[in-house]
Amino acid sequence: MPLVTNLIDDKSPLIQYDSTWLPGNTVDDISADQYAVFTSYYLGTFSTNNVTNGQASFSFNGTGVWAYGARRFNHATYYYVQLDDVTWGPYNGVSTTQAFMQPIFNDSGLTQKMHTLTLMNHGSGGNNYVDIDLIVWQSEVGKSDQQVIRETVQDTDSRFQYHNSAWSSSPSDAKFYSNGTGHYTEVDGATVTLTFTGEMVTLFGAIGTSNGLYSVQLDGGNATQYNGTAFLPFY
């Protein structure tokens, strides 16, 4: 079957961090900023944890997953990764020579279905950091004799149905959106529905200091809640 590769940055709401995680960026991290852009963090950001038993989790529908982070002098001696019901590790994140965008866990050849990956920091002492830079996963789509066809559906397309007047089509930062258009709402309970035919769907939007909680439901499945809050706006 054709494989589709997906990539999300550490700031994606699809990654669920517990309260012990903090945002990081290469501007504030002097020891990371001294390195060339091509060898530092992806898009200049990362999420970091230095609390024993701190956790981050990510659920995906696919056959393979790769989590990337850094190996640095102040990183945890031990961290574990649980993929579904199997725990892997301990892994050592320490490196005297700092290395960025490194695979800190990967597994492939999985059955095409929903999986959950959880990273757990088991470091202790002064240098017990672990970070997440980006996550990549692969999914099987269609049949072996088919080609993958991608389509971009803008927010102005009639397949998006905004169910009440709580939505505005004039965000102040629309110039950063795809095609220069976007919809937003500040009303609790406001809903929008996208109707499509296909085997995969990815929804893009903005996150930032003024964004909050939202939930997504696909067909008749359970609604999943995400958090769109971030320390800076990202599009």
Structural overview:
By secondary structure, the protein is an all-beta fold. The chain has one helix and 18 strands. The strands form six sheets. The protein has a five-stranded antiparallel beta sheet with strand order 2-5-10-7-8, with no helix packed on it. The longest helix is centred in the first third of the chain and has 4 residues. The model has no long low-confidence stretch (mean pLDDT 91).
Share of residues in helices: under 10%
How many strands, which pairing sense, and closed or not: the largest β-sheet?
Answer: 5 strands, antiparallel
Tell me the overall shape: globular
First and last CA, distance: 32 Å
User: Uncertain spans, ≥5 residues at pLDDT below 50?
Assistant: none
Provide a concise account of the structure shown.
The protein is mainly beta and 235 residues long.
Name a few traits of the molecule.
235 residues, 1 helix, 4-stranded antiparallel sheet, globular
Structural topology:
Layout: E1 3-9, E2 15-17, E3 22-25, H1 30-33, E4 45-49, E5 55-62, E6 64-71, E7 79-83, E8 86-91, E9 99-107, E10 113-121, E11 130-132, E12 134-140, E13 160-162, E14 167-168, E15 184-185, E16 192-194, E17 213-216, E18 224-227
Antiparallel strand pairs: 1-12, 2-5, 3-4, 4-11, 5-10, 6-9, 6-12, 7-8, 7-10, 13-16, 14-15, 17-18
